[in-house]
Amino acid sequence: MTAAAPAALTTEQIGFLARAVSRAPSVHNSQPWQLGVRGTEVDLLERPGIELCRQDPFGRDRMLSCGTALTDLELAVRALGRDCHVEYRGRADVVATVTIGRPRPASPRDFALYHAIARRRSHRRAFFGSRVPEGVRTAVAASGETTGVHVVEPGRLDKLAELLGFATRVLREDRGYQRELELWTAHTHGWGAIGDGVPEDAMSPEALPVAGLVRRDTPVPDDVVLAERLAAENLLVVCTDGDAPADHLAAGAALQRIWLTATAKALVGSVLTQPLHLTGFRARLVSELALPGVPQAIFRFGYPAVPAAPSPRLPLGEVVPGGPTGGLR
Ligand SMILES: Cc1cc2nc3c(=O)[nH]c(=O)nc-3n(C[C@H](O)[C@H](O)[C@H](O)COP(=O)(O)O)c2cc1C
């Protein structure tokens, strides 16, 4: 007797997966993903037409964002009580395929991370008082470690402050960059609101250069003050052995596991890739901080002093175009 094939996904289950994917973090909240569902196979596709020529000219952050969505997708499948297998495709459109297998109870850890998906958000403000205990910091970092991905706490905060201060001064004066950022922050409220972009409320008024997106008026304290502020935060750098799209996807997937692990431990955080795109910045970071690979993202985290509001999302019909979730929001 042959075992029955794994059951195809129902409409409700597809909606469940799409909702988890849609809550993933993405560069400028561009949500550059879609799902294509074929029975028990779910393709993660790049959503066409998203270009961030100044922030992300080579699509690295787009692929990192697809990686965060992939982690959410995998956790949602496991939360449904199904096994799954993820295969990197690396084609222009299909980023990865998740093949859904037989029933299998989710582990308590997978459940905890799945439940953190809806609570996670970018927290760009200052954190509450003290540093996070070492054991907790180590557990958060370890959650992102996987083959080819290394997660480290940066030493030499004086050097990091110098580099971030320099990047902030450059980005503040880059008119093309600032124009693009304005486009992604201006339409999130009122009449033009369409469910993507970064809302004004989510941009911290205290924004340190290390805490968010650099705008024309972002203050740049001197390097010594900046280093002191960095020392009061908890920082991780996500690095990869290689620097190809597959590495960017893996880094994004790891970043989201780190972020969800932190969220499950009642921590909050935000991510920084903006300065990494400046010519020569990554190489300087590797040499000054003696990093174990190519830096892909910096994650800062701590205990919240105040809550952060959620950012908008596109309707679920945009996540599964032409799919059964078309009527859901
Ligand atoms: C690959 C990637 C790069 C990002 N880069 C930055 C950044 O440089 N600065 C920043 O403040 N937020 C950054 N973010 C956070 C996004 O702006 C944020 O995830 C998005 O606006 C959605 O908001 P949420 O995280 O609250 O859901 C990045 C997110 C991702 C996934």
Automatic annotation (TrEMBL):
InterPro entries according to UniProt: Nitroreductase-like
A GO molecular-function annotation: oxidoreductase activity
Name assigned to this protein: Nitroreductase
NCBIfam families found in the cross-reference section: Rv3131_FMN_oxido
Recorded superkingdom: Bacteria
